[in-house]
Amino acid sequence: MKNNWSQNSAEKYLKKYKNIGFSKDLALRVYTTRLLGRNKELVLHGGGNTSVKTTAKDIDGKKYDVLCVKGSGWDMADIEPEGLPAVKLEPLLALKKKKYLSDEDMVSFQKRNLINIKSPNPSVETFLHAFLPFKFVDHTHADAILNVTNRPGGLKFCNKIFNNKVSVVPYIMPGFKLAKKVNEIYSKNPNINCLILMNHGIFTFGDDAKETYDLMIKYVSQAERAVKKLKVKKIKQINKFSTKFNAHEISPIIRGLLSDNNPDQKFIVNYELNYHIKYFMNRINLRTYSSKGTVQHNHVIRVKTCTLI
Ligand code: ZN
Questions:
Q1: pTM of this structure
Q2: What is the total count of domains within the chain?
């Protein structure tokens, strides 16, 4: 995977955001968040998140340690500082020892500790970011990482691919429980700079924006190389591919059926066909494969779990 860091671009971001009143920390956070978000093999629209630990002034005039973490509704590809709401760090860290926190309480606690109440809701992975004691934390659901985790013997495979600076975390739904688990794993191995989350994605962390981004590219590249080395059997294809309908013929039918069930909504059909889609459509046992669900929870936003064949 190509490393897209450019010192020149980084300096442009620093200059631009300084002129409109944002710190160096936030300028660099915006820059590398966009670098990650603009790579489709790392981040699908709305997926992944990043954070930076910095300081912010509240209305009382006091400076607080804060965690600026991606807010919901923002896409990493075109994030702005407003998309990284500042949450007071101390109250988050005070819950390190708490045994259980419901999703509802977690969201309201995060909201209550925002510097600006009008900010978007901080990510569900906020506590995880807070508990890792590094300035920069980058998180993606990279294709290559899912490719190595979502397979029989995935855990063993990951331990073989990555060095001792990487810990592999079993699957836990994002939320407070996952944050606690990550904190526990980190406490036992404070030398790590990366976490691979089974069936979920990857976290890299460091005290420098570039270093943290570099680690992401490095580990994703290692996963890519490991996958390339595997001897993957070609999936058997149905012999003849024949398209019976053109997009313009089938679209009105799909739109009509959708509108039948949703009379107040109008639908737009997006048509795409490429090598990968053909390979997927023409495989033997398509029915089984196509109803397996998505490879990762974030994909449910766009891909959904059921396919119309
Ligand atoms: Zn995630």
A1: 0.91
A2: 2
